[in-house]
Amino acid sequence: MVRTLLRQIKQYKKVSLLTPVFTALEVVMEVAIPFAIAYLIDKGISAGDLGQVYLYGGIMLVMAFFSLLFGALAGKYAAAASSGFACNLREGMYESIQRFSFSNIDKYSTAGLVTRMTTDVTNVQNAYQMVLRIAVRAPVMLVCSLAMCFFINAEMSSVFLIAIAILAAGLIFIMLTTMKIFDQVFHKYDDLNASVQENVSAIRVVKAFVRETYENEKFTKAAERLYHMFVKAESRLAFNNPLMMFVIYSCMIGLSWLGAHNIVGGTLSEGELTSMFTYVMSVLMSLMMLSMIFVMLTMSLASGRRIAQVLEEQPDITNPNNPLMEVESGSIDFNKVNFCYKHGSGEDTLRNIDLHIKAGETIGIIGGTGCGKSSLVSLISRMYDVTKGSVCVGGHDVREYDLEVLRDAVAVVLQKNVLFSGTILDNLRWGKEDATEEECREVCRQACADEFIERFPDGYNTWIEQGGANVSGGQKQRLCIARALLKHPRVLILDDPTSAVDTATDAKIREAFAQKIPGTTKLIIAQRISSVQGADRILVLNNGIVNGFDTHENLLKTNEIYRDIYETQTQGGGDFDQPGASEGGAD
Amino acid sequence: MSFKKIDTKVLGRVMGRVLGYMLKRYWLAFIIVIICIIGAALATLQGTLFMQSLYDDYIAPLMLSETPDYSGLSAALFRMGCIYAVGIVCAYTYNRIMVNVGQGTMRNLRIELFHHMESLPIKYFDTHAHGDIMSIYTNDVDTLRQLIGQSIPQVVNSLVSIVTTFASMFLLNLPLTLLTILMIVVMLFVTSKIAAKSALYFGKQQKDLGRVNGYIEEMMEGQKVIKVFCHEEKSIEQFKQLNDELRDSARNANTFANITMPVNANIGNISYVLCAVVGSIMALSGYPGLTLGLLVTFMTLNRNSSMPVTQISQQINSIVMAMAGAGRVFSLLDEKPEEDNGYVELVNARENPDGTVSETTQRTGVWAWRHPHRAEGTITYTKLECDITFNDVDFGYNEDKIVLHNIKLYATPGQKIAFVGSTGAGKTTITNLINRFYDIQDGKIRYDNININKIKKADLRRSLGMVLQDTHLFTGTVMDNIRYGRLDATDDECIAAAKLANADGFVRRLPDGYQTMLTGDGANLSQGQRQLLAIARAAVADPPVLILDEATSSIDTRTEKLVQEGMDRLMKGRTTFVIAHRLSTVRNSDCIIVLEQGRIIERGTHDQLIAAKGRYYQLYTGNSISA
């Protein structure tokens, strides 16, 4: 996991290395100052030599200045390294996601991916910056200070080692035991937030059933439980500070005692004792810092793992070697196809599908939710790969084509379709980048979108808000159809595209298809029989199996499911409410 | 510094409120904490001051004596040990108490927030993005936890150290103290200059981050469309541009933030060195009382003095951030809860032979409105009949934008009223007025001839069963979810309700039957199954009046039939308002109300309306022209 992340450092390796170097230099300067103080005291004050005082004072000022310079440089490079690293992580993830196939996308939720690219990256960025600066600083400080102590007086310094061992053992013990509890605490915390979320989105249900008190009691209990767990975890952390003080004070007393003896014995000077006092503080402080880094790193570990998961995700659909670069016709063949979602229940969604569709045919597809309609059509543009059998377009297996060529030839209007922020023209040109405005107008006429676009004050330059929030459902669907038409595809797949369009417009669009693009093979998934009954043939799917594939008239005679749907829709069970153009407003 | 831009008055008020909130329950604990912090700080100070006597009173005389006697020193060290021990006990005590104070305050705040949120009117949830409300619970409460758990004790701690350190510095040596203060002023000045620059870039970083987030969100939402249109390369290109901008502003912001620490530390170092040099000069030139011990002690104090100042300046940023969060927390707490001036209650009743009703404590299936008349001091009981009338009702979500005009309608007991019309015509809004999710602007709604404003909201809503368009389920078992309709329902009653709603069949096929856990709003169930559970939930409540909002989303034919049957069974014998999408529901209604743009444009039975060849006829035959 760590290696995957580190690979993203790329061009920021140099600054990433410079940071610890400058940090180390800064620390060395800082550590040298108390050492010089010892000389200032011994050679200057004790000896009564003012010249020495100026000399060592000057040296220390220079050291402080360099320390500042190195520190500032380290800070600058750390900022460059960490922000660059974060930038690469985001870019790496974004590129990885763009290579995802549909089944990779299905694995993650949109919100999950957004969190990974934002919050998680920020966490890792902060952790990285901290590692570069403080994680280097603390050990260097520890080693240098310790070395200085030994240099001054090895015998007294061994006292430190015991103190360090006690402090380190104590800190590690506290960290390890609390970490486990914290893990559970954050779990509970998530649950608590989930229940708030639930109450916010279901507030109408809560109020309608007068369950405010009930929910309050439930929440209070959960909050109490959380409180007790937090207290349990944090009360252990409360030992940190006193432990630290205990070790420092013990060192002070020990040093005072041993120092007094050594000075009197003549093996130590007063100045040296002063430096020792300073170093013991530095050593213990750096230990404390290390333990803090440890905690913060483990916190960002989860974020790192989530990022690595995206970076390591292998797209399961890739371009073949020597791909075919042209789709010759719009004929479609399903040869004994079985299909099962990788991240689903493991059951086959489609079983033994064997269909042969000629170029230019119009095919209607009908069946209940979850019967596999959308899965079936997404195999044609190779959004998923079949589990068994093969799907051919224009006589060749879809796996032989270049993906971009195939998807340009097979246009899909998805059930859950999206418009992007930008003008209407921008959105249409997703279908064909260099389309002229006239071309765009033409496809909008075919999709019956021209009538409402022209009524907008800015016409084709009307700005579409994110997700198409400022157009109605029916308008959005028509724009999406126009966008797909602009590709001039060999095969046009429409997954329930006119559910929010009224029946009359729906009929007009179908008529335009028949007249303007007769050579294009059209597959139309629909809930309404009226949307498909004019098709050349209608496919009735039931639980992943072809139940019937024939004309409307024949199916009415022979197919029970089809007749059943037909009857419920025309005789009092169908979707009565045909939303008008005002759809999308507050109801 | 960035906090200068924020109105300090507002900041102070919010801070006062946070402290007040904390102290309300924990004032005693907090006083103990402050005493302990002072105790710990004094112990540390004692340790520093002891240096002076270590050098001057013990080491110096010992060096002069022929036979050094260490008993004085060991006694002094023992005394120090005791003082230190007290300091350590103090440190533990305040750390430990702060855990309870901090977490306890957080708990109280969370609970109060939640309770208050539950009392808010629906309008609040309409006008606030759910993400924003959630962020109060997660981000804002979290920053407050930081504030109470870390910043406040640290600031108190730093303040105490500053006071004690400077006090002892003044006592030891005045000129050196002034020098130290001068350097601290320099430090603060430089820091504030850097912080101002840094705040500028942080602002830009925040803006760039927002843009990158927005772009990611939009693209992730449309990821499948990107694939279908082979738009990957282009979207990567656009992303890179935004991403690079963010990198640059992040680099600038962090550079300045990162420089602060070494600058502070080294100005501290310079101050330390200056102090040593100046002190030495003074000592050598015979400044009275400036011994080696005193100088060493003073230098340690000098070192300690810059630390709390740096700490406070670091805390200021997080305090300002926490105050912004606290502001949002309090603004939720300050929202006005749903008003309820009702005094008419719904009670269990028994019908007397003479036709009157009287109150009982048992659940009889007969209900009555208990209507106290304050003027006469009497109580009358009206049997719950479910007769609902709208009299010239006007309603708007805002005062100035009326969405429903002159609504007049009446439903007599057991009648089924269907609302039809395009989306946005106001169908759902009407039903939300009956249960007083919203209050009307003008006109009157009467329930069994009682103005609904006089009925207690809880009792009003208890008499109305609702099946909403979007089914929301709660984390818990299937059984829990059905029981949500009536908390004292037995398992058998819940199962009976599930049977009535046609939900029993699929529930039994779930891995754990009625004990199957549902999470994430019933994510493991299909749309149709969730609807069946919602119907069962309403059925177990067994309300005399039903409000049904049929789901528009298409579900497969088989489940749709089940839902239909379940709804029909539930409606039997109840006054029902139904927002209809299905033809059969509409046709069987006693009265169909056609709404358009907030007005009733047609009403009558199916046959009447078909004969009238109006809007209903258009909708029915599917010949409507998109408006």
Walk me through what this model shows.
Helix content of chain A is 63%, strand content 10%. Chain A is built from 20 helices and twelve strands. Chain A has a six-stranded mixed sheet with strand order 6-9-10-3-11-12. In chain A, α6 packs antiparallel against α8 and α6 packs parallel to α10. The C terminus of chain A is likely disordered. A six-stranded mixed sheet of chain B has the order 10-13-14-7-15-16, sandwiched between helices. Chain B has a four-stranded antiparallel sheet with strand order 2-1-3-4. Chain B has a four-stranded antiparallel sheet with strand order 6-5-8-9, with helices on one face. In chain B, α1 runs antiparallel to α2, α1 packs antiparallel against α8 and α4 packs antiparallel against α8. The C terminus of chain B is likely disordered.
Topology diagram in text:
The complex is a heterodimer of chains A (587) and B (627).
Chain A: H1 2-6, H2 13-46, H3 50-99, H4 102-107, H5 110-152, H6 154-201, H7 203-208, H8 212-237, H9 240-265, H10 270-312, E1 332-339, E2 350-357, E3 362-366, H11 373-378, E4 388-393, E5 396-397, H12 403-409, E6 410-413, E7 422-423, H13 424-428, H14 437-446, H15 450-453, E8 463-464, H16 473-485, E9 491-495, H17 503-516, E10 521-525, H18 529-532, E11 537-542, E12 545-550, H19 552-558, H20 560-570
Parallel strand pairs in A: 3-10, 3-11, 6-9, 9-10
Antiparallel strand pairs in A: 1-2, 1-4, 4-5, 7-8, 11-12
Helix pairs in contact in A: 2-3, 2-5, 2-10, 3-5, 3-10, 5-6, 5-10, 6-8, 6-9, 6-10, 9-10, 14-16, 19-20
Chain B: H1 8-64, H2 71-118, H3 122-127, H4 130-172, H5 174-221, H6 223-228, H7 232-284, H8 292-334, E1 345-351, E2 357-359, E3 367-373, E4 378-383, E5 388-395, E6 404-411, E7 416-420, H9 427-434, E8 442-447, E9 450-451, H10 457-462, E10 464-467, E11 476-477, H11 478-483, H12 491-500, H13 504-509, E12 517-518, H14 527-541, E13 545-549, H15 557-571, E14 575-579, H16 583-587, E15 591-596, E16 599-604, H17 606-612, H18 615-621
Helix pairs in contact in B: 1-2, 1-4, 1-8, 2-4, 4-8, 5-7, 5-8, 7-8, 12-14, 14-15
